[in-house]
Amino acid sequence: MYTLVIYLYMCAVGIAAIFNKRARKLAVGHRKAFFQLKHQVQKDARYLWFHAASLGEFEQGRPLMERLRREHPEYKILLTFFSPSGYEVRKDWEGADVICYLPLDTPAHVRLFFHFVKPEALFLIKYEFWQNYLKGCQRLHIPVYSVSSIFRPGQIFFRWYGRGYARVLTRVTHFFVQNQQSVDLLASLGISGNVTVAGDTRFDRVLDIRASARPLPLVEKFAAGHVVFVAGSSWPPDEALFIPWFQERSNPVPPATSTPPAARNQVGHSPTVSPNPTAASPRLIIAPHLIGEDHLRDIESRLAGLRVLRYSSATEENVAQAQVLIIDCFGLLSSIYRYGQLAMVGGGFGAGIHNVPEAAVYGIPVLIGPNNQNFREARHLLDAGACFEVHDAADFNRIADHLLSDTEAYTRSAEAARHYIADNAGATDTIYQTIFPA
Question: Strand pairing partners for 145?
């Protein structure tokens, strides 16, 4: 039944590829994968295989890949993706030796995959347990490690109709899970003794990003002397909240009595903020999740009447005069958060929020939409008072205004963000020491 579903999915992707660009990339990428494996895999080399569903899972696995590459140079790294949003962004990443799509999980594909490469271990990042590939690993005695995995009662493994598929989990050599609930759920399936609560490697990743955050002179010039709101990975429903809020507050207002907070982040950069919130108007940085021309023009139309500048057109002369900076390229957001005093991480009004720790690591309060129940770190940041859930414009306006006018409240939130990230780091070390004991 499982393999039949995979074949049906292949047919569906093939049909969708006629009409949909994303599906077309997926179909072409899967076909191209075997060509890449045949010509790029070195027959006598020793490979460690990492699989990430998409970009977020890649970022979780990256600290472990980088450590293995640094401390065990005798291994090469094979990195596979399922989603175009991961592969298309990281297909040229220098940290792996071979990067390709994962061919769909049919018995024939699995046999051909292992014909071209025989990895010494497989690391599955967070999700995705492909039954035929795991059978192949078991047959070839390849250990399988599940990294930063998290299990919930609603997942198929724990439903009455999914107990047959749940057997796929017995083929995993060791689980490095994020929390105790995952341990208990695996135990309910008879899986114990090979489960370790290691935490989430994402915290190690955001700390690495913070430590190596590159200076962005144009963004720094744009932000200097202003209170800056950063909207990261925004979608239209997010933009419908923060754009009107920003427009209303971009005009001069009577002097306030309180001092806007200036958060010192952990890379040695202290945002240059005027002690009087009226001395310089606020600034807005938008890094949309989708940077297609239609979406960018829609954002610009919503900001009519303000001085809006795209990053690709920014110069030292014009960036200082802009009120809004739109980041129309990938790869900068994690470094841009450092220039903000307040952030919103998008996605919370759709499929789910994006990377909240990426902003919180800089010690700035974060606003998110309500669809955050399945994001453990976001829920913990909410509980800690470092993150705030907004449901509508009234919520957004009230919370944003409060944080930017009450220095004490802002400082409490900023400190909570910093402490939560620091206290939850260390998963990569736990995983590494378990697999490669000294």
Answer: 123, 174
